[in-house]
Structure formats: structure tokens, C-alpha cells
Write a structure and sequence with these properties.
The chain has helices spanning about 5-20, 45-55, 60-75, 100-115, 140-160, 175-190, 195-215, 225-245, 250-270, 280-300, 315-320, 340-355, 370-385, 415-435, 440-460, 470-475, 485-500, 520-540, 545-565, 575-595, and strands at about 30, 40-45, 85-90, 90-95, 125-130, 165-170, 280, 305, 310-315, 330-335, 360-365, 390-395, 400, 470. The protein is an alpha/beta fold and about 600 residues long. Among the domains are: about 5-95, Gyrase A, domain 2, CATH 3.30.1360.70; about 175-270, no CATH class. Strands 7-6-5-11-12 form a five-stranded parallel beta sheet, sandwiched between helices. Helix 6 packs across helix 9 (about 250-270) and helix 17 (about 485-500) runs antiparallel to helix 20 (about 575-595). It binds arginine. Arginine binds next to helix 12 and strand 11.
């Protein structure tokens, strides 16, 4: 926000240092939080160290030398527009602004840029975020919702930070779990198809659970039961064999049921406002994964032990020259010629790099797959892909309900859709008392926005590596770290502006606009607004949605405090009232921007 001033000051410092043969280190500017005034600062410790190396510190300690330089450059700066005073303290140069000028600048920047306030400059790198990739023939549960929320928010963040961003999904659509559903369907439910996209998708999970019950060895089985179970087992194996061999009927059944799953997934993604650009499937990379094995052998990365009756393996640690075990040795092609999950990930990564020109590749995947992904990244490095350094695993922990952990096999899963429906129902029952003047269609829509906001925020507000125990009442609370609390700040800002019939325009901003005794809550609010661009950038660079989630809460919190303590519509002084309305309008805008990055809607009323 103060780049111009920073540049001006930097120029002066550079000119001075060049003229006096001081080897200036790169200047890093940091904002100074408000303590009577706002400012920004830079230190001269690195420069002092440079000087010491050149034998030019005249027996001064590093802090002393830094302070001396700070004092010297301070003498060069005076009279710049907006700068109130300059200090040289403990090796730092502190530059302070007139508070009214700073406030004006922040509000002006926000209103001028609107939805683009905080957007980063276009960058040359392409980021691919892979997320929302549950296995097919299952249902979308609350853990998948955490994955989807983290991935979508990360994609929004990198996009906003200026990266070309590609959203990708990689559902697992093969393996024993899938075959188990096919077998069950074929044997007991052939020709059936429940109505409703969601019901049909969920039904596959029911078949899976039922099949596992039939196939599970029980205690005290009678000989007849054992024989029955073994017969089922043999049928399932046969189904797998046929699938592998490309049997047209089995393939057709697989395609149809896979589509049921994907239809349901797409419907849920739509509810989550997620639009995937590229769909990869495990089955699609199966053949390419076998094809890369020869190349890895030829390059000396993989060892072919098939002649000795073994498999094709990669001794990752050895090839990387590591003496301690880290990535271990991995099979990439079994003796029977089948490839593995790891091999498929290698082929997939190659496609991401070569076909989609991905420079930074992010994987939003359960933390339990961490070693697997680190192994894949290590092999990509051995393979010579420079992008391997910029592969990043965004892991995340379990989501459970207070009732306990989930298990797909046993059918003990908490479906995302059920939790969402319940959340909406609860919001509706609250809303009835709150805003009676809303039509029922409006109320419905808002309830969906709040229910979804509550769910998504509860997935984002916990550090991704930690497990979540999801409490629906807490998530829906209008107090505390919740989606509705932040949405409510937006509703309040909106209703103030509406009551005043206020249309913000930057022409209403005058140099004198904020030239009054700002309340503590106004200062805090301005401070929060000013931090948005930096927080958005940081969240993207560090791949941490939590940074934005926390920021949105802090901003909402600052606004709620302002709302309770500082009169806006009741302010007698018209000039101050105007200033506060502008501040409210700016806050509303930044709340919208932050909520949008968090994939949460900003309702106008509640
Ligand atoms: N479908 C996998 C699962 O549900 C997640 C895919 C992870 N991505 C990857 N490139 N391996 O566990």
C-alpha cells in the first residue's frame, strides 16, 4: 500500500550508500503495528555485517554499526508526502505516517480495487492443485469435504496471488474395493438403479458394506457357511480377472457404476462451488505407468530383478546417496507385470509436468499417504524433473464426529450431504426468529449459505495436520471461530450501509476525511484491513489456508468490536459519520474478498 513511499525512501538510501561506499544489503520492509501511529521499518544489520567483512566497522559492534548507518540515512529523509517523522532506533530505520493519511490510504485502496484488493501481480509459474479425489464406488463423506475445502481454498489463494492455477482431481477407480461393488451388484442387484443422483451414489456404498459382511470370515462358521463364503470369494476373484482381461460386460458394468459415483461427486462439488479443470483417473494412468518402467531401468534409477524371479524396484535411499533409511526401497512393477499406486503417481506427475506445464504441483491428500508421496517426489527428482523440488503434499488429518471414528468397510461413515442437510435444517429453525421479513425462498437460500459456511469454515480453521472432531452445534454458533460469525459481520456491515442508503465512492474520500480522533476500535479495524494483501500472499506462498481462515476471523472480530463500541448512524458530526460509513464499506469489501477466498458465501441478511 505504501510501495511508492517505500521506493522513494529506498532510492534515497541507495543514493546515499553508493555515494559513501557503503555496501547496502537488500532492504526488507516490515509494517509497524499501530502504537500511536503507523509506519514501516527496515534494519541495517545485514549492511553492518557486509561492512564488517570489508574491514570497515571501525571496531564497532554490529548493532552499533547498524545504528550508525540508520542514523546516517535518516538524515537523508525528510519532507516526503504523508511521512510524519523518521526514527533511527537500535539499527532500524522507522518511518511513520500521519494517522489520518494512512487510514485514508487504506480505505481508498480497498474501495478503488474492490474485489481485486489484495490480488497479487501475475506470476510466470503454473500451479496445479490436485484435490477432491475420493475413490469411486463409495460415498462422499465428511473427510472428503475437508479435502475438497482445503484444495479449493488453496486453488483460490494461488490464483489470487497471481499464479495460473489448474484444478485437478484424481479419483481412484480401480482395485479390490471397486471390484467388490461390481460383484455385489452383479450377483444380487442386477438391473436395479435407485432414483436420484445422490441416492444412487450412496447406494454403492451400501452394496460395498453388504458385500464385506458376506465376504468376511466369521467366528464359529459352520462348514456350510465357510463353503458359501469361499464360493463368493472365488466369484469376486473371477470378476477381477475378467475386469483385468477387459471383458466387455464387466467393463460396461464398471463404466456405468463409475458414472453413478462421479455424477454424485460432481453434484456435491457443485454445491461446494468447485469446478475441476482436469480429471485424471487411476485407470487412465495404468498403461502409461507400465510404459515408464523401461525408461527408469534404462536411466539406472530402477533395478530390474525380474530375471531372478523378482520385481522392478527403486532403491531410493541408495540412489540418492543417503546413508540413513528415509525413503526405503520400492517396487514399481510386480513380477506378474502389474504396476503399483506409486508407479501410477510417477506417470501422473510426468503428465502434469509435460502436458500441463505445471511448475508447482500440490497434492491435497490424507496425511497417511505422506511417505508414499515423499517417495514419489524423490523418484521424480532422481528422474531429473526440476519440478520435483516444487511438489508439495498438503496433508490433512481425520475428521470424526463425537460419536467416534468412521469406517467405510463397516458402513460407519458420516456422509457430507447428511451433515449439510442437518446444518441447513438447524439454521432454518434459527432464522425464523431472526429475520421475519425474509421470504421463504430467501430464507432457504441464506440457510444454505450459512450451513455450508459453517461446514467449510470448521474444516479450514483447524491446522490441516490435526484431526478434527466435528461438533455441529459449535460450527453453527454465531460466536467464536465459526463461519457464521464471519458471515454475520458481513450482514451487519451490509445492514448499516443499507439503512444509511450509502453508496461508497472514492470521491467521498478527502484528505481530511479521517482527520479526527479515531477510536481504538477504528484503528484496529484499519489495521486489519491493511493486512489483507499480505495475508493473502502469505497463505498462498506457504500453502496454508489456515492463514486466511484466521485472518477472516480477526477481521470479523475487529468489526464486531467496532460495531458494539463505535456509533455510525447515530454519529452527529456528518463528517465523522461519512468517514465511518466509508470504513464500514471498506470492511464489507474485504470481508467479501476473504470469504470468497475461503469458498464461503457472504449473505446480505440473516
Ligand atoms: N484416491 C486417493 C484416495 O482416496 C487419493 C489420491 C491421491 N493423489 C495421488 N496423486 N496419489 O486415497
Amino acid at each position: 500500500m505504501f510501495q511508492k513511499e517505500q521506493q522513494l525512501v529506498e532510492e534515497k538510501i541507495k543514493t546515499y550508500c553508493a555515494a559513501n561506499d557503503i555496501q547496502l544489503a537488500e532492504l526488507k520492509w516490515k509494517p509497524i503495528p499501530f502504537s500511536g501511529e503507523w509506519g514501516f521499518a527496515t534494519s541495517f544489520f545485514q549492511t553492518a555485517a557486509n561492512e564488517a567483512k570489508r574491514g570497515r566497522s571501525e571496531n564497532m559492534s554490529a548493532p552499533q554499526k547498524a545504528q550508525e548507518i540508520a542514523e546516517q540515512v535518516k538524515g537523508q529523509i525528510s519532507g516526503e508526502a504523508g511521512i510524519r517523522h523518521v526514527e533511527a532506533v537500535k539499527g532500524y530505520l522507522n518511518i511513520y505516517f500521519k494517522t489520518s493519511e494512512y487510514a485514508l490510504r487504506v480505505v481508498d485502496e480497498v474501495l478503488k480495487n474492490g474485489a481485486n484488493f489484495g490480488r497479487g501481480k501475475l506470476k510466470s509459474e503454473t500451479v496445479m492443485v490436485e484435490y477432491a479425489q475420493p475413490n469411486t464406488h463409495h460415498s462422499f463423506h465428511i473427510g472428503h469435504a475437508r479435502n475438497a475445502a482445503l484444495g479449493e481454498v488453496l486453488a483460490r489463494l494461488t490464483e489470487f496471488a497471481g499464479y495460473r492455477t489448474i484444478r485437478a482431481s484424481y479419483p481412484g477407480d480401480l482395485g479390490l474395493g471397486v471390484i467388490t461393488v461390481l460383484w455385489m451388484y452383479d450377483k444380487f442387484y442386477k438391473g436395479q438403479e435407485p432414483a436420484g443422483v445422490h441416492e444412487r451414489g450412496q447406494w454403492l456404498l451400501k452394496l460395498y458394506v453388504e458385500a464385506n459382511q458376506l465376504l468376511e470370515k466369521k467366528e464359529n462358521e459352520t462348514p456350510a457357511e465357510t463353503a458359501q463364503r469361499e464360493a463368493y470369494e472365488a466369484e469376486r476373484r473371477e470378476m477381477y480377472r475378467k475386469w483385468d482381461a477387459g471383458d466387455p460386460q464387466v467393463r460396461e458394468l464398471w463404466h456405468v457404476t463409475r458414472r453413478w459415483s462421479l455424477d454424485e461427486l460432481r453434484e456435491i462439488l457443485q454445491m461446494l462451488d468447485i469446478d475441476i479443470d482436469v480429471w485424471f483417473f487411476e485407470s487412465d494412468v495404468d498403461a502409461p505407468s507400465k510404459a515408464i518402467v523401461d525408461e527408469l531401468i534404462a536411466k539406472g534409477i530402477a533395478d530390474d530383478e525380474r530375471p531372478q524371479g523378482g520385481a522392478v524396484i527403486v532403491k531410493i535411499d541408495e540412489k540418492l546417496g543417503l546413508t540413513k533409511e528415509k525413503y526405503r526401497t520400492n517396487v514399481i512393477l510386480r513380477a506378474d507385470g502389474t504396476s503399483l499406486y506409486l508407479t501410477k503417481d510417477l506417470a501422473l506427475a510426468k503428465e502434469k509436468f509435460e502436458k500441463y506445464h505445471v511448475d508447482r504441483s500440490i497434492y491435497v491428500v490424507d496425511t497417511r499417504q505422506s511417505l508414499h508421496l515423499q517417495q514419489a517426489f524423490a523418484i521424480l527428482k532422481l528422474w531429473g524433473f526440476a519440478q520435483a523440488e516444487k511438489c508439495h503434499h498438503l496433508g490433512y488429518g481425520f475428521v470424526s464426529l463425537p460419536e467416534g471414528a468412521m469406517s467405510s468397510r463397516k458402513g460407519r461413515v458420516t456422509l457430507f450431504k447428511e451433515v449439510y442437510d442437518e446444518a441447513v435444517k438447524r439454521v432454518l429453525s434459527l432464522n425464523v426468529e431472526k429475520s421475519v421479513e425474509l421470504s421463504s425462498a430467501e430464507r432457504e437460500k441464506i440457510a444454505r449459505q450459512i450451513g455450508m459456511g459453517a461446514l467449510i469454515y470448521s474444516m479450514l480453521s483447524v491446522d490441516n495436520n490435526k484431526d478434527i472432531v466435528f461438533h455441529i452445534d459449535e460450527a453453527l454458533s454465531f460466536d467464536g471461530r465459526t463461519g457464521p460469525y464471519i458471515q454475520n459481520a458481513h450482514v451487519r456491515a451490509n445492514s448499516i450501509l443499507k439503512k444509511a442508503n450509502f453508496k461508497p465512492s472514492t470521491s467521498a474520500l478527502q484528505p481530511e476525511t479521517f482527520n479526527y480522533d479515531l477510536a481504538k476500535q477504528e484503528i484496529e479495524l484499519i489495521e486489519q484491513l491493511s493486512q489483507f494483501p499480505q495475508k493473502a500472499q502469505q497463505a498462498a506462498e506457504e500453502y496454508r489456508p489456515l492463514v486466511m481462515a484466521t485472518y477472516a476471523y480477526d477481521l470479523a472480530n475487529a468489526f464486531h468490536s467496532f460495531y458494539h463500541a463505535v456509533p455510525v448512524l447515530q454519529t452527529e458530526d456528518e463528517k465523522i459519520k461519512n468517514a465511518r460509513l466509508l470504513l464500514v464499506a471498506a470492511t464489507k469489501q474485504v470481508l467479501v474478498n476473504a470469504l470468497h477466498l475461503l469458498d464461503i458465501q457472504a449473505p446480505d441478511a440473516m
